[in-house]
């Protein structure tokens, strides 16, 4: 069977740790979208792993697959594999030959576009990894795929077509001088070597066939979503989104297995007990603000709850895994979660970070929005309308700081009562049972109510 892990909010919900948790009983962990914009943390036995491309099952020695829906930067992939090997792990990563490759010019163009937008509210605040420009080329039918790296001559031919276009775009449209990143021979030399290494290490696969035959053999597969529902290119708050589909449908299109297979398994929505956002775009329940990311920060200032935001940011270590940027902090947003549950069909939930909120007198939840004279319960389709939404809050009594390791050992009933009330409220609203509760960053700091593979 399969378990699909989906971020229900804006990324960084703790997907990596849930993959690691259920990874114990899995054989294969496959990413289905995104690239090295992801930063998935697994903490095991005092070791912290921050994974961008290598699927999070690596810590437990599981086979990792980067499906056709991913965009792969071979440079960061090999760096990550080498670093993990130095740390004593044995990454076994298979790459879909249909996956698209991030080339040096994609990263440069990502930066150029963000610079151009920097004086306006159009700036997305991307991770700068070239994600958007690579998916653009995929849709534009001029992308380079992993399979192309395996044939040096074919790679040269494809680069000869695309690189001059990219150079003209950078120089003539944006007026930026270009260097080696836009030189056919330089790019070819570097990327055909990556292709050689992929061949030597026997890394490339027909990912759909590979995964289907593993399922036929009785293997258990985790689909590891990256990013989150509200930054999904279709279901997120466009244009402040990433360029792929983190929602559960992506697990089918991004691996080559059928929607039936994904739907037959569990789809677990990962929920952070509050909310964070890296980058720009609306955030109706925002507590404070981050310069450069919070829209209208200049006019609004830090916000009246900045001290609370700062407290949660510090307690939760809310700084970007990839970029180190401070994350914007907000109360839980139920319209957002209802939207996510509908789009992906959550059969279960993993709620993380309830320990971070411990010690607060009151914990709030944005229950509905008021916008243009009406009360709504889900996320509006346009970002402009979402930006006008004013949340209606529900208040919950806070819960005390306790020994969370003890709670994890003792199980669900040891979770402070007010925190259980909060968890049960979320579960009732989304009509999905809580499968796991994160009470700290480590593998052991988890209360497990349901093990889907067992
Ligand atoms: P991902 O991108 O969804 O995998 O999440 P990230 O790894 O980017 O961010 C989650 C951060 O919170 C990491 O630093 C995790 O170690 C940490 N974390 C995950 N779950 C919990 C939890 O239940 N409690 C606390 N205190 N930290 C957690
Ligand atoms: P994980 O998998 C949080 C955000 C960026 C930016 C927008 C577009 O760790 O949850 P991109 O570089 O993808 O074109 O940036 O998406 N973003 C993430 N935010 N977690 C992530 O991944 C993210 N990946 C991209 O900050 O706002
Ligand atoms: Mg992350």
Tell me what you see in this structure.
With 454 residues, the chain is an alpha/beta fold. It folds into 3 domains: 2-95 and 205-268, 3-Layer(aba) Sandwich (Adenylosuccinate Synthetase, Chain A, domain 1), CATH 3.40.440; 101-198, Orthogonal Bundle (Adenylosuccinate Synthetase, subunit A, domain 2); 271-448, Adenylosuccinate Synthetase, subunit A, domain 3 (Adenylosuccinate Synthetase, Chain A, domain 3, Alpha-Beta Complex). It has 15 helices and 20 strands. It has helices spanning 15-23, 74-86, 104-117, 131-139, 152-173, 184-200, 207-216, 249-253, 259-264, 297-300, 306-316, 334-344, 383-388, 404-410, 417-430; strands at residues 2-7, 28-31, 40-44, 47-51, 63-66, 71-72, 93-96, 100-101, 204-205, 221-224, 266-272, 275-277, 328-330, 332-333, 348-352, 362-371, 374-376, 390-397, 434-438, 446-448. The strands form 5 sheets. Strands 9-7-5-2-10-1-11-15-19-20 form a 10-stranded mixed beta sheet, sandwiched between helices. Strands 14, 16, 17 and 18 form a 4-stranded mixed beta sheet that branches. A two-stranded antiparallel ribbon has the order 3-4. The termini are close together. The model has no long low-confidence stretch (mean pLDDT 95). It binds guanosine-5'-diphosphate, 6-O-phosphoryl inosine monophosphate and magnesium ion (MG). Residues 11-12, 39-40, 321 line the site of magnesium ion.
Note the beta-strand portion: 15-25%
Q: Which small-molecule species are bound to the chains here?
A: guanosine-5'-diphosphate, 6-O-phosphoryl inosine monophosphate, magnesium ion
The counted number of beta strands is 20
CATH architecture of the largest domain: Alpha-Beta Complex
User: What percentage of residues falls in helices of 4 or more residues?
Assistant: 25-40%
Q: How many domains, as an integer?
A: 3
Task: State the separation between the terminal residues, measured CA to CA.
Answer: 10 Å
CATH-defined topology of the largest domain: Adenylosuccinate Synthetase, Chain A, domain 3
Shape: globular
Please give the largest β-sheet.
10 strands, mixed
Low-confidence stretches: none
Helix segment tally? 15
Mean pLDDT: 95
Q: Order the strands across the largest sheet as they lie in space.
A: 9-7-5-2-10-1-11-15-19-20
| The top level CATH class name of the largest domain | Alpha Beta
Tell me the CATH superfamily of the largest domain: Adenylosuccinate Synthetase, subunit A, domain 3
Integer-rounded radius of gyration: 22 Å
> What class do helices, strands and sheet pairing give?
alpha/beta
């Amino acid at each position: 069977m399969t378990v699909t892990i989906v971020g229900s909010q804006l990324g960084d919900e703790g997907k990596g740790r849930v993959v690691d948790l259920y990874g114990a009983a899995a054989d294969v962990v496959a990413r289905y979208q995104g690239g090295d914009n992801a930063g998935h943390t697994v903490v095991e036995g005092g070791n912290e792993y921050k994974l961008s491309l290598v699927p999070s099952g690596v810590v437990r020695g599981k086979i990792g697959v980067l499906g056709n829906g991913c965009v792969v930067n071979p440079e960061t992939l090999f760096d990550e594999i080498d670093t993990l090997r130095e740390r004593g792990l044995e990454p076994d990563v298979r790459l879909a030959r249909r996956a698209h490759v991030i080339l040096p010019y994609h990263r440069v163009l990502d930066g150029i576009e963000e610079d151009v937008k920097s004086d306006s509210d159009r700036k997305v605040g991307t991770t700068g990894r070239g994600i958007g420009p690579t998916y653009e080329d995929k849709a534009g039918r001029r992308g380079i795929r992993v399979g192309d790296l395996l044939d040096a001559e074919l790679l040269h031919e494809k680069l000869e077509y695309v690189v001059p276009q990219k150079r003209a775009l950078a120089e003539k449209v944006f007026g930026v001088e270009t260097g080696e990143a836009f030189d056919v021979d330089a790019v070819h030399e570097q990327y055909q070597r990556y292709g050689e290494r992929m061949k030597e290490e026997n890394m490339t696969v027909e990912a759909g066939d590979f995964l289907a035959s593993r399922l036929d053999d009785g293997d258990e597969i985790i689909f590891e979503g990256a990013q989150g529902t509200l930054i999904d290119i279709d279901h997120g708050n466009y244009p402040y989104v990433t360029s792929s589909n983190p929602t559960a449908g992506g697990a089918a299109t991004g691996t080559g297995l059928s929607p039936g297979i994904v739907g037959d398994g569990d789809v677990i929505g990962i929920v952070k007990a509050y909310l964070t956002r890296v980058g720009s775009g609306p955030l109706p329940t925002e507590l404070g603000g981050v310069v450069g990311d919070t829209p209208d920060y200049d006019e609004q200032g830090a916000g009246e709850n900045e001290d609370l935001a700062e407290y949660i940011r510090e307690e939760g270590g809310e700084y970007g895994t990839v970029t180190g940027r401070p994350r914007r902090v907000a109360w839980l947003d139920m319209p957002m979660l209802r939207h996510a549950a509908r789009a992906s069909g959550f059969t279960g939930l993993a709620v993380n970070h309830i320990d971070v909120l411990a010690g607060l007198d009151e914990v709030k939840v944005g229950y509905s929005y008021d916008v243009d004279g009406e009360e709504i319960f889900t996320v509006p389709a346009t970002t402009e309308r979402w930006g006008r939404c004013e949340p209606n809050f529900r208040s919950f009594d806070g819960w005390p700081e306790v020994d969370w390791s003890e709670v994890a050992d003792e199980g669900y009933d040891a979770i402070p009562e007010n925190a259980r009330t909060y968890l049960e409220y979320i579960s009732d609203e989304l009509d999905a049972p809580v499968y796991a509760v994160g009470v700290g960053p480590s593998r052991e700091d988890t209360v497990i109510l349901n093990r889907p593979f067992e």
